[in-house]
Design a protein that fits this description.
The structure holds two protein chains of two kinds.
Chain A lengths: L2 H7 L3 E4 L11 E4 L3 H7 L4 E5 L5 H9 L3 E4 L7 H9 L4 E3 L4 H10 L3 E2 L10
Parallel strand pairs in A: 2-3, 2-6, 3-4, 4-5
Antiparallel strand pairs in A: 1-5
Chain B lengths: L5 E8 L8 H12 L4 H21 L2 E8 L3 E8 L7 H4 L9 H4 L8 H8 L2 E7 L3 E9 L3
Antiparallel strand pairs in B: 1-2, 2-3, 3-5, 4-5
Helix pairs in contact in B: 1-2, 2-5
Classes of the chains: A alpha/beta, B alpha+beta.
The structure holds adenosine-5'-triphosphate and magnesium ion (MG).
Chain lengths: 123, 143
């Protein structure tokens, strides 16, 4: 499934990266509001679902090469965050669903979590 | 590839959240440019980012020093902050003294130092209360 499919399932608004959506394949998803957890448990090429909307979340995404971010429960980040993502050609979506429901929708559509696709894994 | 002698020093400002992460980002880009294996770069980037954020949140800033040599990649985070009084406690998963406004940004899980330990092959922390903290992280080319 690609990000375009994710967008449809979540009835999400595209904040930036519209042109990238059908080119980015999503295999894994992670939902978290803790940056250290995202850094510790997320593989590269993962889609992040989060309620965090500060610029650090984009830095985090850059550091571990996430595929994109979906902001949940309609919490829209500031223009500075959207601009930062734009500069990095990094797609951002916004859905009205809360975190738990967003996870549920994507999980029932067949997307797995990071622990289920543990290939390399250290420590 | 000639890795010997490459080193880089990047200043980190305390409490500046809009610049926070720039040092780790530069370390990451530098290592990728040197042609270092991307999985290894990822480990270095995560550990460096955690150490940089700790300097931004818990100290008054300092510097990140990257050294790439034959044996290992070495990253040092050096600050002149308030230091860590109980290192054993600080290393525990979930222990954090981060203030509420920092927690609202998604930090303060108390997972930073444990994450660094997981990512690095070698970790050494020297800290003196009211003088500062030095975190030395070593990464081997062959895990
Ligand atoms: N450079 C530092 N100077 C002073 N205290 C530090 C420093 N780094 C860590 N600490 C202390 O150690 C504690 C644990 O650090 P750790 O990185 O594990 O968690 P955190 O920074 O509080 O939260 P997280 O990293 O999950 O966002 C901190 O809360 C702080 O009290
Ligand atoms: Mg930390």
């Amino acid at each position: 499934m690609n990000l375009k499919d994710v967008q449809r399932l979540l009835q999400a608004e595209v904040l930036t990266g519209e042109e990238l959506l059908d080119r980015i394949e999503i295999e894994m998803v992670c939902g978290s509001d803790l940056i250290s957890d995202v850094l510790a448990f997320t593989k590269e090429k993962t889609l992040l679902l989060t309620g965090l909307t500060n610029p650090q979340i984009i830095r985090t995404a850059e550091m571990i090469e996430l595929s994109g971010i979906v902001f949940v429960r309609g919490k829209k980040p500031g223009d500075d965050v959207i601009k930062l993502a734009e500069e990095h050609h990094f797609p951002l979506l916004l859905t009205k669903f809360p975190l738990y429901e967003t996870c549920g929708i994507l999980y029932s559509a067949g997307l797995k979590g990071c622990s289920e696709l543990d290939t390399v894994g250290r420590g | 590839m000639d890795r010997a002698g490459m080193s880089l020093e990047i200043p980190v400002e305390g409490n500046n959240f809009s610049a926070a992460g720039e040092a780790a980002s530069r370390v990451k880009k530098t290592l990728l440019r040197l042609g270092i294996d991307s999985q290894l770069v990822r480990r270095v980037a995560i550990a460096t980012y955690e150490a940089e954020m700790n300097m931004v949140i818990h100290s008054d800033g300092g510097k990140i020093i990257l050294q790439v040599d034959e044996e290992e990649i070495k990253v040092q985070a050096v600050d002149q902050g308030r230091g860590i009084s109980d290192l054993e406690l600080a290393m525990k998963e979930g222990y954090s003294t981060a203030p509420d406004e920092v927690r609202e940004m998604g930090f303060g899980a108390g997972m930073g130092l444990p994450n660094i330990k997981k990512c690095a092959d070698r970790l050494e922390i020297k800290s003196v209360v009211n003088e500062g903290t030095t975190v030395v992280m070593g990464f081997k080319y062959q895990p």
